[in-house]
Amino acid sequence: MSYSPSSPMLCYSPRVTIVGAGRVGSTLAQRIAEKNLADVVLLDIIPGMPQGLALDLMEARGIETHNRKIIGTNDYADTFGSEIVVIAAGINCKPGMSRDDLLYVNAGIVVEATLKAIARSPDAIFIIVTNPLDVMTYLARHATSLPSVDPSGLVARHRIMGMAGVLDSARFQNFIALEFGVSPVDVNAMVLGSHGNLMVPLPRYSTINGIPITELMDAATIERLVERTRHGGAEIVKLMQTGGAFFAPASATCLMIEAILRNESRLLPVSAYLQGEYGLENICLGVPCRLGCGGIDTVLELNLTDVEMAALHTSAESVRESIERSLLLWSTVRDR
To answer: Where is NAD(+) bound in this sequence (predicted)?
Structure first.
């Protein structure tokens, strides 16, 4: 008996590009493929590394029972036609580096990656993961507003966002579940503001099976969980000593990708460009947004108390200062 394959059918498969094949990027590629969300292009500047990671992931397809294609590359031409581009490239602060050094180095990486990726995928939605996250999200949006990149003005706030609030809320969710002894599935948590020590966890909007934690825990316990959430990333760095978190950041980013590709209209806290919401303008900051196939559909304005609003504005001011400093550093070096 002979086998004659039928004529191949042209079937559409969404494509997600991940720029940066480090621990977060490679774990995210695995998450996307094994959840059967999209084909993946894993890009990095190190020759051979993304190719090797992609081959390793491809060799697991039969075991994990999916047929997604994973491409490893050092060439942005291979990212053509991506629906979503994730920027996870960058460095962590090293000994002897100042905060300004980190800002400038990562700003250059994020801006270059965003411009090269959008030139190949002009309609893509961008998710920024590189730290300092809210600043990098703003710079990505700022760079893609250049007339030479998108003269039609299509690159608006709904297409460029940062992953932060999803991760911070997941950490708060986990700490609440551990403290109360319940499954995290029954916990919903909400964290706004910057992805840093000045983030704003909201106990009033954080619940266990619909019951606000303010009715289930005393103030001291809640404050302890809030502080642990604010320093959740640093706690992992201190424990690991040689790196930072990557499993949870990859899962948080994957959740956003799934909401967009499957048009789920999920209400998730993400770093979005604000145009008057919460009394803030011309800044990227973590706020609850509805995500669908177009990216950010809407920004939800919660009814915050005076204390909560003040904390959000304090968080925003810190981000704004870093944005202004990074733009100044960028322009100073460029004009030399």
So the answer is: 20-25, 44, 106, 129-131
